[in-house]
Amino acid sequence: MKSQSIRLAIAVVLVGSLCACGAGQQAGSKEDSLQDIAYDAFIYAYPMMEQVKTVNGMQQFMNFQFNSVAMNPKLPWDNVGMPIVAPNLTSMTGGVLLDLSQGPVTLEIPVVEDRYIVYQCIDVFTHNFFYLGTRGNQGEGGQFVFHMKGQEVPGTGTTPVEVEGDHAMIVVRIDIASAEEYDRVREIQNSIQLIDAPAPDRSYPVYDEASAFSPAFVEYVNELLTEVPKSETALFARFARIGILNDVSLTDEEKAEVQAGIDEGLEAIKAETDNLIVGNGWVGATEVFGTRAYLAGNYLGRAAGGHFGLWGNSKEEANYFMAFTEGEGQIVFGPDDLPPLTDIGFWSITVHDEKVLVHPNEYDSYVLITDKMVFEDDGGLIIKISSKPEDGNWLYTPGDKMAILIRAYQADPEKIGSYAPPAFEKWE
User: Fold this and answer.
1) Does residue 265 sit within a domain?
2) Phi-psi sector, 133: left (phi>0), alpha (psi -120 to 50), beta
3) Owning domain of residue 114
């Protein structure tokens, strides 16, 4: 739990911001009910709590520790049959958990020009605040110093990267086409190192589902944050009334009012997730992941993104389209129906069960990627999805309920926001 002195220091800042507000702008004014405040605060905090849950799971599954590099040595197709939602079957993965509370952390990465690689940097608020890799810095290597505002950054030869908050996550994905490339990818993974990192100091929250959906959810925010973002001072002054970065004691009646706001907020998040429908039976998350500046206060969208699937990439890097359907059939792409990509872009399509898991099948048929696809003479594409092998582009399904997932990497950012894949056509 965060120290009492930090909590009180933040509370003083919040009280000062309340006093500085004009009469018509005062945050947390008496017209706001606790239910209204809890509704907004829960929507704000929801993706942060989902991140806590995910990090907790990774700490157990992959032994992730703060200020150390943890790379998964498993080939991606070895994740088939594992209880992993929407496993990436074309990339080997890894990550770095950062604790900047005691000072900057320096990451060293190798030059990678022979394959796609991405370092997705995610802050405590779940913003994608920085990218390295094929698109982010053209695959160049170097040393990058992650630091909080006001921290002294080491001298020349490094690139400074400012982080909001003192915890952050770097998700690493490295493309691999076959087992023959395993040694090369492991070489890349082993070359990703922290060369200067203080010992982690602050504890990380332990996720508890009952707490996350009760008035106790405020404690997750209180544990995660050591300072209020400057642009959100008034917002947090309003949240202070229910105990966010402020010590309050709520009556049972007040807690019931807060719980009503939480329940209402969760329903709003689910409804907004439904609004991610892009057409032709597809749900797409192209506009709800990105930097703080890009999201521009769209807290409900950020929460819907967390509900759709945490750690989605910004649309310049990767985009996701999912269709829930059943049976056997095909998707027919005309030459103008393919995902809009940049010159270095590519895409893949995977079939999952209705829970977005992947099960073993006798054909080892799980994913198709651009360079393995057979295109029509006019540039179009037909993908068949059935229980028995078909000529051309084919993926296995037993014919039950399923989720079809398209991942479009390095898409055209001007066009991907309005894109919808063609519909799945069910065979009679």
Assistant:
1) no
2) left
3) 67-196
Q: 328: which 2 tokens? A: 């056997």
* Residue 78 near residue 170, CB atoms below 8 Å: no
**Does residue 72 share a domain with residue 182?**
yes
Do 381 and 375 meet the contact criterion of CB atoms below 8 Å apart?
Answer: yes
Answer yes or no: do 146 and 223 share one domain.
no
**Tens-binned pLDDT, residue by residue, of the chain (428 aa):** 444 433 333 333 333 333 333 333 333 334 689 999 999 999 999 999 999 998 888 887 777 889 999 999 999 999 898 877 788 899 999 999 999 999 999 999 999 999 999 999 999 999 999 999 999 999 999 999 999 999 999 878 899 999 999 999 999 999 999 999 999 999 999 999 999 899 887 788 999 999 999 999 999 999 999 889 999 999 999 999 999 999 999 999 999 999 999 999 999 999 998 888 999 999 987 789 999 999 999 999 999 999 888 888 998 899 999 999 999 999 999 999 999 999 889 999 999 999 888 999 999 999 999 989 999 999 999 999 999 999 999 999 999 999 999 999 999 988 998 899 999 999 98
Identify whether residues 169 and 301 lie together within a single domain. no
Query: How far apart, in whole angstroms, are the C-alpha atoms of residue 396 and residue 399?
Result: 9
Q: Are residues 115 and 170 in the same domain?
A: yes
Domains identified in the chain, total number:
3
